[in-house]
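Please fill in the sequence for the structure shown.

STRUCTURE ENCODING:
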């Protein structure tokens, strides 16, 4: 029998914080490991990472939009800008839709395209293709993003916008960008739905197509939330072309501007705290249902607790989980199974 010497999660955390790519990869594998034996190690890794960084300085960006809008091409163009400026970037490419015709190929293709700027220590890409969306992408993507935030300046999550995913991504990212394409039915649908409220930055890609792109941008500008909806943020709608590299610089600068806006207004801390409560609640609900959530004190109390300064969300989650389990055991101890009627 081979004995594999796994690194202690605390040591792994230290290496991740030093920016070691191999450690980032092992850490993500550990978080992705659903076996019971990995649970405790994952929890220790996350607890020790967030003990070091209560509010990671990095910028967590979500990019979403309909299939084929050019998200991956645009992400690749943005990465070039960031890397030129010496900014390090981690990417999580998520395709929760399990589109059978794609077979994960779309993301692999994306990886190759992004690889243009690879062999680069400052860029790390992890693909999460064909996920079972049970519980939503947010449950697994949040801890992974948190891990990557420990060592990259920018962590970018790319998802395909299919309704629920947009809502999920809004519960993760500091800044959300929606990529539209000219004259697309998806974009019209999007404009009609309530989720137009979600993004902070809009891009209409493929502006090399001319008039249809300008028309779509005008439609989005008309539908985008007004300035006063979220403090003083002005919701830019950018005409860009990822393949022609048009408008990328101006588009790309809005991300740093939004990050600055969040920091200046104090929204960043609030947003992260809201996102961490959403994650804990979502996970507990997925595992134990509404009854379990109530046993842990209910949404409101959990939210309050997690918004307190210095609370380690991952440790808190583990504690709440243990608490619920012990309550379940006392309600229904294993030695006296209830009879089925
Ligand atoms: N004309 C034009 N085509 C573009 C532009 N950007 C991307 N494309 C093309 O649009 C197609 C889709 O681009 P992707 O970057 O794969 O789009 P995506 O949104 O990531 O697609 P999925 O991952 O499948 O949802 C490709 O054939 C690109 O070459 C652009 O600026 N102009
Ligand atoms: Mg893509």
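FILLED IN BY: designer on duty
SEQUENCE:
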């Amino acid at each position: 029998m081979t004995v594999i010497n796994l690194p202690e999660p605390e040591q792994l955390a230290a290496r991740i914080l030093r920016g070691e790519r191999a450690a980032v990869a092992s850490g993500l594998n550990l978080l992705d490991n659903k076996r019971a034996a990995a649970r405790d190690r994952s929890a220790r890794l996350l607890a020790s990472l967030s003990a070091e960084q209560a509010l990671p300085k990095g910028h967590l960006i979500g990019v979403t939009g309909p299939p084929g809008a050019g998200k991956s091409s645009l992400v690749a163009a943005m990465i070039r800008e960031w890397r030129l400026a010496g900014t390090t970037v981690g990417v999580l490419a998520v395709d929760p839709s399990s589109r059978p015709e794609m077979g994960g190929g779309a993301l692999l293709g994306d990886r190759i395209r992004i690889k243009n700027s690879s062999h680069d220590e400052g860029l790390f890409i992890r693909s999460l293709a064909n996920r079972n969306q049970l519980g939503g992408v947010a449950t697994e993507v949040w801890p992974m993003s948190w891990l990557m935030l420990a060592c990259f300046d920018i962590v970018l999550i790319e998802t395909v916008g299919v309704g629920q995913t947009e809502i999920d991504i809004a519960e993760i990212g500091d800044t959300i960008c929606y990529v539209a394409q000219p004259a697309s039915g998806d974009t019209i649908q999007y404009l009609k739905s309530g989720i137009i409220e979600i993004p902070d930055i809009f891009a209409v890609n493929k502006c090399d197509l001319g008039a249809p792109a300008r028309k779509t941008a005008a439609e989005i500008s008309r539908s985008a939330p007004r300035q006063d909806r979220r403090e003083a943020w002005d919701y830019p709608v950018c005409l860009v072309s990822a393949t022609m590299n048009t408008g990328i610089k101006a588009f790309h600068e809005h991300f740093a501007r939004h990050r600055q806006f969040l920091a200046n207004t104090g929204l960043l801390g609030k947003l992260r705290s809201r996102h961490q409560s959403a994650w804990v609640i979502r996970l507990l609900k997925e595992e134990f249902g509404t009854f379990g959530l109530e046993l842990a004190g209910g949404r409101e109390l959990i939210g309050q607790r997690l918004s307190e300064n210095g609370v380690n969300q991952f440790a808190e989650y583990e504690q709440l989980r243990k608490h619920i389990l012990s309550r379940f055991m006392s309600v229904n101890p294993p030695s006296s199974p209830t009879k089925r009627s």
